[in-house]
Structures are given as structure tokens and as C-alpha cells.
Here is the input.
Amino acid sequence: MGNMEMMEPGPALVNGLGYVGTGKRGSDTCPPDVITSILTEARQTPPPANTLGAFFGGLWMKGVANEELAFEALLGQGALKDSQALLSYFSQGVPKKVLQQTKELMDGKIMNRAEAREMGEFLFSDSPGDSLRTLIATILRVRYASPEEYAGLLDVIASQYPPAFCEPVPEGKPIIQLAEPFDGVERSWILTPILMRDLTELGYRVVALCGRNPGPKKGYNLLDVAESLAESRFLKSNSQLGEENSYGWFLRQSDVAPSLDRWVEIRHQMKKRPSLATLEKYVSPFKADIFIGSAFHHNFGDKMGEIGECLKIPKVIVTFKTVEGSLGPSLGRATKIFTSDLESSGEYRHEEFDFKVEDFGLTNTPDPKDFTPGLEKNCELIRNYFATGESGDAYFDQRVTAAREMLSRVLG
Here is the structure.
């Protein structure tokens, strides 16, 4: 796609993507002033092709309002008359089969697992067509990819695992997979390393997924914390899970799924979280017995549970209304928890409940609004807690206690 794809997107088109690419319950028509600013900016600086792909993917799936037909000026007259016309602007160097599949997506098709696997071969390659990839990823975000689609895409990721992650997993204690949001935090502390140690002491093997921050938030994330702690051990092969470890393992996305890691730069241009933000949480070369993750939106918790069920994970735990979507619960409001347990019949038993800190002897305390965390301080608090059982920060310690009680509750 040339140098155009490597440009930093201007704020006007990114602002527009915030309207059209939010999701099937949140997208909206661009206001007139936003339309004008996008077109004005584009005349001065041509938008990056990757950002255009994401924008038009969202716009198409939302439905093009009459006033938004003005966006044809970004591509050409008639670009928004039908899916084939729009698709032609993002088709350079792309196989015909992929173009046909994309047209079907644009026209409302939901892929089965095999079809999603075929699409994944394109999404997770480095062949030409990144702007079409961003269009596809945004389509899947806006209408919510189905569990079967996620499973098919994950099949492709699994087929690309390095040899060390294709080794048999040694027999042993149950494996818990923790999946924090990769875009990190901007107004809370990361507690995960302490939770990993606690879960290890409870008799589990624990692996926490982490990777480079793809945005849209720019704060530090779990990978930054892990790389700053001397206690951290990074999983480099499945065979390592046969070793004793008091703190669990971190798993870098770049070590296990380089094709997902390649998307980080692409996602920096998209600005919005594509469907990959959910997908990356389920990467599991060791086939976890228990998945613990968090939902981005209140109506996505059950969807994340369905994804785990489609993957046949024996126990799936998804939290919502935690602080910044992390695994650490809020002290000021109830955390909603979704669980799915695979029973001997082959069916899943579902439970949904609220975890309230006051039910466990903790004080309901509003979470700080003007709180600005920092990586160095976060790591200092974790080190203090490892050494003495207290961090030196009362709010931090209460959230750790709340998280410990919450995990104890859901794990039984």
C-alpha cells in the first residue's frame, strides 16, 4: 500500500471513526461539523489507507446516511452505492476469494468456523491488503464477530504457533489463563502479578497473556509491569509448564503469535479496538483448563462466555464493571461476573452474579477520579506486597483483597 499506510492518521478521521466504528449498539451518524472537518483535513493531508479501511468498514456496517454520502469524496464518486463499489477501492493485490468473502461479510453474512479459518489465512498473513484487513476487522467489531468466527480465526493462529508451543503440555495442576486488556491502564493500578502468585499458591499453574500496547489507551500495560519485575518468568515453550514456579508465567504475544503482534502497528492507525482485542485474549497453546478475562462492554460478557464455550474451555469466567476493564474489581461498585462450567453431559452450566466488596468485610469506597498511576510506582507497590504482604497504599491493598475474594468465589 506504499507510504500512505505508514502515515499517522489525522484527528478528524479518527474522530469520525469514533462515531461510525463503535459497535452495533453504539455507532451513530457523523454530525455535519465532523463530516466537514474530515473532508477539509483530507484535502490537506491524504488519510492513511489503513484508517480509511477501518472508517469505511464501520460506516458501511452502520449504514450510510444521506449526509454521509459526502464521504465518497475520499474515494471517488459512486464508492458508496453498493458493497462491490466500495470494495473495489481496497482490492489491490488481494486474492479474488478474499474479495468475495469480504463482499459477503459486507452484505450481512456470518461465517461458519471453516469460512472464518479461510478468512483468517488472509487476516494473519503479511501479503498486500492491510487496508482491506482493517475494513474486515472493523466489520467484525461493529456487528460483533460470532463465537464460530472467533474460533475459526483462532484456528489459524494456532496453526502458526512456533514449534516450542506445539509441544505436549506436561501433566500437572490445572492451568489458569489470565487475560488482562492489552491496552493497559491510565487511572488504576495493575494487580495481576500478585493475583498470579495467589492462584499459584491455591494449586494452579497460571499463565498471564501480555503484549505490546495496541491502543487506543496509551498507558502502561501488563507486559511493561512484567518486564520490570525481577520475579517474572516468561513462557517460551509448553514444556516449561512442567517446572515448579511460585509466581506463574507471562506469555508474550510476540513469542506465541507473531502474526497478531504484527497487527499492533496497524491498530495504532485504526485507533479503535477491532475484534482482535477479544481474539488475542483466547490464544492458548497450552489449552487452559480455566479462562479468566474481562469484558469491554456491559453487553459483551455473555458473548465472551460463548466464545470460551465454542473453544471447549472447561471453565470460563468473565468479569465486567471492574476498574478500566482490568481483572481487579472496583471498590465502589459491584462487579458483574459471568461463569460457564462444562459438565459431564457436554453442556455448559451458566451463572451470573454480582460481587460486592461489602459482602466480604470491605468498605465500599469510590474509585479515585483524578488518579494517575505510573509504571515505576505500580511495580514498587507490587514488590512491597511480595516482600511484606502490604504495599504501603491502602487503596491498592484493599483492591488486592477484593480481587482475592472474588477469584476465590468464582473458583469455588
